[in-house]
Every structure is written in structure tokens, then in C-alpha cells.
Fold these 4 entries.
Entry 1:
Amino acid sequence: MTVSIDLGQTSAGTPALLDLEELLATRLLVQGNSGSGKSHLLRRLLEGSAPWVQQAVIDPEGDFVTLADRYGHLVIDASAHSEAGLVLAAERVRRHRVSVILNLEGLDAEAQLRRAAAFLGGLFDAEREFWTPMLVVVDEAQLFAPMAAGEVGEEARRASLGAMTNLMCRGRKRGLAGIIATQRLAKLAKNVAAEASNFLMGRTFLDIDMARAADLLGMERRQAEMFRDLRQGHFMALGPALSRRPLPVKIGAVETESRGGAPKLTPLPSRPLEDARAVILEPPPPEAPRPRRAPPPPPPDILAQLAAARPAAAPALPPPAPEAEAAHRRRLEAVLRQVLADPESAWRQPGQLHQDFLLRCRIEQLGSRLPDLAGFRRMLAVAKAEVPEEMAATPDWAEAVASAAALPEDLQPVFLLLARAALGGEPCPSDAAIARAYGTRSVGRARRALAFIEEQGAIQCRPDLTGQRIVTIAGPGWETAPGNPAEDAA
């Protein structure tokens, strides 16, 4: 099926169409000075493709957050999340196929680079089974992939440039289609710009930018002067998703409004203040400082709501006898152990394991009182910790299970694995063991999961004098023995 996005009109009056499937394979570069209509073009493209493909927008000025009201994008306020939290959020965005806007407004330049790099890294490092098509739009790309070092720290610049390079150079196989927009081609790293095969070039005035735009469009240098004469909202289009020859395009209207529009002229007061100096420079009252405007409430986090969602309670039934309930529970746990005996079970999704579990329960004739997916996830988290029966019967283990419930479901097995080691005085689990409990083969994701749990205040990690890791469970203070993080999982 071919999906075409209507960008507006060509100079001949025909619709200017962009082939969405071709764009997913070839990427897009948009260039134009401030006021050329670059953000308007991106908004038109996002609105037209929103029903067809998942989207992620890196928004340094908060211009695109208004898309959320019309198209249901999740707005993530980057200032309210750590880098580790943004990496996990990006992985969950790909897992749940939620369109998202990363709002970097209010952060300084270095913080914007670090958080954008973390989020793009999470999108790029997602598991292979979640490599579905996604448009990744980066506005003001020269900030995140600068040609040369600027005022930000070198570490932040390298991290951001590496994430942008991965997006444009290696993202296609992972389903990521980069769309980058810049005011200055000369300030954008060449290895990032060179990976785009589609171009929309708007008004620009500097000779070096006009020359690079002409080169990218295959035009002669003497034709570069035309970029000075382009009006607002007019672009030259070229690329397999747009046109085989440079084509003038006028971008059409959009349905949502930007928060970053240019200010309009406003009439001055009809008469000046009688004593401006006295009014403006009057000192404030001694005990009545000017109140600060309260910040707006953060937007709802859809991913957090998904993680915390629980199904409605079933109608109350007469409770079974305690002995029968305990026997039924033991039989369910025995079936779950059969499911987890498969060496590949650690990498399968909970929904797949649940289906296998239900099938085995029906074969064992365990009746209709079987756990739903949420209940199965809780059983799975406990089972992955491999806690001994004598420990499972203690009040301390019940406290550990209750503490795990405050974490997202995919992190509960990791917390319970650490709690079991701490209660038993065992060495701290290695990164490989934590990765297996988390359901991934990546030790990098395991370390990020551990960092996220620590940020939530559930654990404390510290090294001993030999560099081995010790984890303390917050609250009761249980502590693991030192363990080697690099040790292979059993």
C-alpha cells in the first residue's frame, strides 16, 4: 500500500505529494533560516503522517506540544526526568508504539544535548522485536549535531553527535527514519546531513549555506542565488520520496497552532503613564515580594499510566478453603516452573509466557481460577527471583514483594532478585543475571534498569574496596554480599 502525504502545491498547481514508505527508507533534511516556514513544514508533515506511522519529535523549544491535543502524542517534559529514566522511557515508547514529543524547553544547552542523546539512544537500542517503523523528527538539528565544538562540554557534544549519527546512518534497519531540520547547513555535521536522500530547501542568505544547498540539490552554483528570493513557506524539493528533479513547493495550511509563532505588532497605550519613573521604579513592599507564577502541572505520563494500570476487580466469590487454595497455588507454581524451564523463556515477552502458562494449566485441568496477565506478571516476578520455600514463607519476603509493587512491572523481577540475594546474604547478582531477570540480553540495559531503580529510592548501590558491587534494599536495610558485576550468569 502506498501512502502519500500532501505537503501543499507545486509551482504548476498540482498537489505536492511525499511518499511515506519511501521516506521511511531514505530520510529527510529540511533547511531554512528563521522565519522561512521550516517548523510549519514539519508540522504539516507530522499532521499528515500521524494516522499512519509512529512519531517521535525532539522539540528544543516546545513548539510541537500542541500536537498532543489533536493527535494524542505523549508529551515528555525532559526537565522532570533523568537521563536513565529517558532511556527506559524511549525503550517503552518503542515497545508500546506510542507517538511522543520530547519537550526540552527550559533546559540549558548542555542539558538539552544530554537528554536528547539519552532518549535517541533508548530508541536506537530497543530490542529487535520492537523495530517497527517510526519517524524521528529533530528540530534545530544543528544544536544536536554541531559541525564544531561550541559552548557546551565536549562529553555532551560527543554523546549527542553520536546519537544523531546513529539515527541517520544506522537507524534505517531499526525502523527509525530521521527527519532533521536546521537553520544553517554550514553548522550541521556533514556526516549527519550526508545520509539524507530527500531535501526541502527554504530561504537562506549566507553564501556558504546557499552553496551547500545548491550542491545537495544538484544545481549549478550560479543558481544558488535563488534561495535568497524564496518566500516564507516556499521550498525546493528533491529526492526519491518527493521528486526526481528540483521542484518548487508551497507548503499548505496546518490544523494545529504553534506556541512559537512570531510576535505581532500591538498598539502602544493611547496615553503615557503620568509618572512612569515613580510607577516602574517604586520599591516593592517590605514583606510582600512579588509572587512567582506557579509552573503549569506536568502533562500526564501515558507510559506511567500503562505501567500502573490494573484490570477491574472481578465480582466477589466465596473464598475457597485455605487448604484447597494453598494446593491450587502450589500446582500453579509447578506449571510456571515448567514454563520457565525453557532456556529461551527469559527472553520471551510476558504475554507470550502467559499464553503458554494458560495452555499448560488447561492440560493439567486446573479449572477456571487462573491468573490474568497482571496476576501472572506478579507470579513471574517472584518466580524469576528463584526464592527458596523457607524464605518465601517469611514476613521479610512478604515485605520485599510489597515494596516491589511500587515499581513498574518490568523492573519488579530485578528488584526481587536483589532482595532475595540480600535476605540470603548472597553475592550481589551480576549484570548478566540482572539482564536475564529484566528479559534482555543487553548488560547495558541491565545497568540502566539498576540505575533507574536506585533513582526511585528503592535500592542503594556502592562498590567495596575491590570494586565489587554491594546493593542495599532501602527501608529494611538488607544488604547483599559483594558481587562481581562482570561475572557471567549461571
Entry 2:
Amino acid sequence: MKQASSRNGRGHRAYRRQQAALKARVKRLNLPCYWCGQPIDTDLPGTERMSFTADHPDALANGGRLVGQQLQPMHRSCNSRKGNREDIDLEGWAAS
């Protein structure tokens, strides 16, 4: 039996709503990338490396849930570099 992808399975719509709300908040408050601290242009197409993505602190690959996590704004390239690591120390992120 083939396992359903988390991208189209249970909770996907809730995740998309949470992601859209975060993107709107980033745009409204000009929040920086959680990983590098640089501004995020929320108007860039999703294929651009510096476009907005919503990061799961507990990576899905490590057993994290699709919904129910506090998503973090990141550039697509920063999210890719972070991968499924959890050991990041970004204490000053909220202060920037």
C-alpha cells in the first residue's frame, strides 16, 4: 500500500492556511528570515531562491507534524540549507 504524501494528505488545507497567515504577517511586519536575519520579499515567485517559505521547526522528515507547529519564516534557500536539522541557536532572531 502506497503511503500518502504529507503535501496532499490530512491537514494540508490547515497547513496552507497557517502558511498564508504567516506570509501575510511577514509582509505586514517586515519580519526577517529566521535563519539568516535578512528581509524576505514576499512578492517573489515561489521558484526564486530568496522567496518566502514557511519552515517547520520539527522537520517532517524527523517525525514533525504538518500542522500544529509554530511555523518560521525563511528564504527558500535558507530553508534548504537548514534541511532537517533542529540544532540551530537563533536567540537574537526576534530582537532583530
Entry 3:
Amino acid sequence: MNSIAIVGAGLGGLACARVLQLHDIDVTVFEQEASADARPQGGTLDLHGDTGQVALHTAQLHEPFCALARPEGQQMRAIDPLTGEVVMDEVPAEGDDFRPEIDRGQLRGMLLESLKPGTVRWGRPITEVAPGRLTFEDGAGQDFDLVVGADGAWSRVRGALTGVRPEYSGVTFVELGLDDADRRHPDLATLTGQGTLMTKVDGKALVAQRNSDGHIRCYAIFYAPEDWAAGLDFADTAAVRAHLLERFAGWHPSVLRFLTDLDGGFTHRPLHVLPVPHAWTHTPGLTLLGDAAHLMPPLGVGANLALLDGTELATALATAPSVDEAVRAYETGMLPRSIETAKACAGGLHDLLSDDLRSMAA
């Protein structure tokens, strides 16, 4: 085996690279972004004991993960959006660490630090993909034993396998945040608790989640046509706030303060998913993992599956007689698993926006 190319320095690609290096397999990760801190890495993740944490054990990173993880973040609260009454408050039992929370940026940083210097080539966008070959923006080409598409929702590598692109789900997220919430927004911090707070009715929801360092990340979620924000300038915080307050009119003032007391602005995140099932004909020299393979609604499984995909692929590459046999074995296990999970997530997205306040799909 000569070399493996991973396109994309997300969680799944980095986990794959980590396990390959544990087995002394040559791997290079190509990332189009200029550096590790080129953009914010998103909110908090719950890593499950039977998927994401299994992957971290394989990568020999479970101990440093536990040093960063927040078991108290498993708390789940729900409030009535019209009265502000708390209707559910599930606090994790002492010693419960099956789904602890960790900031995505912290997890990615831990994976990056575990790799040999120079493993990730920053600022290397891909323009063409063929089995076992990458062409870069500067026109240079390079051959590999295997090209792994770990390049997320809008994967270029996926185009060489299936040509399938994500579709708008009919649901949109608008993200906002509260900084140093315990000091600056104590009432909202108390309302949120240590984990996730949800309130919802009539196809609309507000979700608030604790991150590290006292930050609370919030999401206004609702059904909307794809062009719902046409004419709305997201740089105009006052205009976006006014639109959301109108959309959520009638909700309790304690809930609406998440929309009015934010620090910074709003970020529009329309939710796209891959069709179910999404699969491909085995092609020597190419494969996919994570969102590139199975982009699903953000209901707590995507990062877990990406980590599991990456470590399972790397383990197969380290143990199978050939690269192609390894990829076949990996795809044989990964594709059915991802299809079944994607089916469940499709239903979970509707549960997220149902009127059942005890349905905490997020």
C-alpha cells in the first residue's frame, strides 16, 4: 500500500487519518480552507457510547475526550412556549456518560493534535476527482491507492461516485448565540440548564444548547419554502429579529428573550439532506464517509457516524489483504447502517417540529 488521500479535514476524515497513522499507513488530508481556524466549527455534539465513543477508543483518544467532555450536558429540558412552564427536566444520573457533550471545535482540535505534523495540507482545494487521482486548483495532479471523500455536505468526491446532490428538506434553522451567559444573561442561562432546552408548537421550535465557556447556542427552527428569506438581509440584525418575532408571535416573553437578547447576529442555515437511500456502485480507488456519504438532519447522529465511518475504514485498510477488499468490507457495513439511520432521522425531523414537548429529537 502506497498512500491514502482524504479530502476534507472534518471529524470523520481526521479520525480516519489518526487510525491509519496508528497502523503506519501513509495518509494525507487535503483541506480547501486556509487553516484550522478559518471559520467557527459549530456547536456542541453528544458522542454516543455505542458509536462515536467506540470510534474514539479505536483512535486511542477516549481518555483526552473524557477530559474535555461534559456529562452534565446530557440534561434535557422542555418548556411550554405559550406559558413558559417547565414540563420536562431530565438530569443525568451520577456516572452517566453514555452521551456526554463536547464542543465540535474542541473535538476537532483534539483530532488535529493527534496527527503527525504536516498530515493536513491546508489551502488545497480539489478541482477534479477520478478513482485514485486528485487534481488541485493549481493544476497539479497526484495519484493515490485510494481517495476518500470526507468533504461534507457538498462533497466534490461524491460527484465522481454518484453525482447526487443534497436537497432542501423544507426545514430551516436560524442560529444565534449568547456569550458568557451565566454572567450576562443569568435568567436565560438558568432556563437553559446545563444541556439542551427545547420549546415548540405549530411547526416551530426554539432550541438552546450549552457549549463550553458559558456560551449558549440557539436555533430558531421552522418549516419554510426554500426562498423564504428572499429580500431579508441577514447582516441587518434588527430586520431578522423583527421577522422572527413576528413568526414566533404569541410565545411567552421568557422564550422570546432568546431572540431579543442575543450577542452578535443571526446565521441562516437551511437544512439540506441526501435522498434516502443514498448508495453507489463500488468503484476501486474511491469511497465516501460522513456527510459526503449520508447527509442527514442534525439530530445527534451525524458526527457519531462520521467518526465511526472513519475509524472502521482505517481499520479495514490496516487489516484487509488489499485496498479494494478493505473498501468493499467497509462499504458493506457502512451503507446499510447509514440508510437505516437516515430513514429514522427523516422521521425524527418531523418529531422535532411536532407539538409533543417530550419529543426531544434535537
Entry 4:
Amino acid sequence: MAENYTDTDGQKLLSRMQRWARSLGFQAMGVSDIDLRDAEAKLQDWLAKGFHGEMGFMAKHGSMRTHPEQLVEGTIRVISLRMDYWPGEAAEPWKVLDDGNRAFISRYALGRDYHKLMRKRLAKLAKRIEREVGPMGFRVFTDSAPVMEKAIAEKAGLGWIGKHTNVLNRDHGSYFFLGEIYTDLPLPVTDATSAHCGSCSACIDICPTQAIVGPYQLDARRCISYLTIELRGAIPEEFRPMMGNRIYGCDDCQLVCPWNKYAQSTVEPDYLPREGLDAPQLIDLFNWTEQEFLSRLEGSPIRRIGYECWLRNIAVALGNAKTSAPVVNALQQKAEHQSALVREHVTWALDQHQLS
């Protein structure tokens, strides 16, 4: 374990660390202790209600998720970092959502997968800190292990968890990724911020599937992000009409949030749109072969759902599109697809056009 610091020395080190973090492309850095009892109680309640659906990983690992010292022995502090991803150059989201012939993809997934980029930057920061203080225990995380990243970010002062359950910052909105460094370095903790959602219910009201069942309560089983990304089987029919043209994720609760008028455009070229994914034609994407899917989306977070779910999601969107010969023809071409999952969703989509 690294040496103990006086309050003054600790604050000076913290200030230097924040400068190093900014130089590596992070917009903010804070430090929290490892007391996550409040978050643990909320997690257990959420799991007890079954809101996690088929995301079994949320219930695995016992208490490691809410006890950082169990996940990484010796941990006494968590360094939390924020990196903005809003692609300012992308097509205007509401215009894409209003065009039933185009596909809407969550803005975080338009460019390269953030996991590798963030992990490399976190490791560089940890090594830079180590050069300053000497050998220390640490491990970096980017949505890659049982880590309560939102609760940690809130404790570290990077923002507050809003009614939509995303972390919000008064000066940057919610379009940012989070990363963590678990460490045995006895750093001073940074102050948490207060919540500023007030009486606003915009995110609750806008949700297409009413997945935000109450302030700060998300039933993932109803969430379009869960349905299009995490769910591997058939999408429940009751939700299909509500999905519109959203084929990978859903940003409605963030798009309508008043605080996102302060969102900052990303400075990372890797987060900018690739392959025209900010406003692509549904039929064009539906016609990709599996090889095209794999090659065009190389390095993209979208690849993790696989080609079968990709076609499943687009079939639903085409079912919600305005009836036209090109739409019907595209669906009919995959009516005998080798995947039963794809066939089932194509049949449903054709039924919406009264042509099964």
C-alpha cells in the first residue's frame, strides 16, 4: 500500500491527478470511499422486483458488486472518471426518430467501442499516479466487472443519479462514459453533489414503453435498450409497436432531459459516427450479410448483439415503418431466414403490413 499523506499533501496530489486525467481526455475526476450500503439496499430491492430481467450478471458475484474491497483486495478508495461522448456532428436525433424509414441507434454506439479506449486511458492514469507515489495496488474498470459505477460516480461528486437512473451533471448533462480505478491509495475523497431533478418528470413521461415505473426506478424488462441489446430471445409483442425505429438502444429519456442542453460535444474522434450510423436507412442495414455486419461494425459496440439480434431488431422497425413496396419486399426476402428468431419477427412485421 502506498504511504499515507497529510491532508495538505493529499489535496495537492488530488489536484495533480485531476490535471493528469484531463490531459488524458477525461472531463472530470473524483474520489469516493468504499461504503456503498445505500446503493446495496437499492440494488437488492431492484433485484427482488425482478427488474433486471435476463441480466443474470446483475445478481451474480454475491456482495462483490457493492463491496469493492472484496472484488479487489486492499481497496480503500475508488477513483471515478467521466468522459463525454456526445457526437455533436451526428444527425439530429429527433429528426431520425421521426423518419420511419431510418434506423435510430443510441448516440453512444455510433463510433468505436468505448471500453478499450477508456481502459487504456485509465491504465495510463494509474501508472502516472504510481510514478508519483510509488508502488500501489490498483485495478481499472470500464463497465467490465461487478462495479456500481453510477453510485460511485455520485459519491465522488461527478453528478447525481437522475430519475431516469442515469448520472447527471449540471454542466455536462448525461452523455458521458464512466470508468473507475480501485486503489489502496489513501486519497482524500471529493464531495458529492446535490440532486437537481426537482419536480421534473420529462424522462418518465417520454419513455416509449413506460420503463421508468417511478422516479429513480427502471424496470429493465420494459426498456428498449434492454430489449434491443441485452435480450437474446424474442422481443415481447406488446413492446414491438412502441419501439418505433429504435434498433439499438434508446435515448429518449436523455434527449428530453433539460440538463442535456449543457451537454458538451466529444473531443474523441473515435466516438464520432461511422458507416453513416447516425441516420441510416433501415432497408440498407437489413440487407447487410453477416460478413458485412461483422466487417462494417468492427470495433463497434453494436457487434456484441450478434447478427441474428441485429436482424430481429430491424425487422421490428420495418414492421413499424409505413407500408411500402420496398419495405414489404425487404421483409419478404427474409421470410424464410434460417434463424427461427428472425423468421418470427419478420412474420410479425409482415402482419403489421397485413401481408404475412
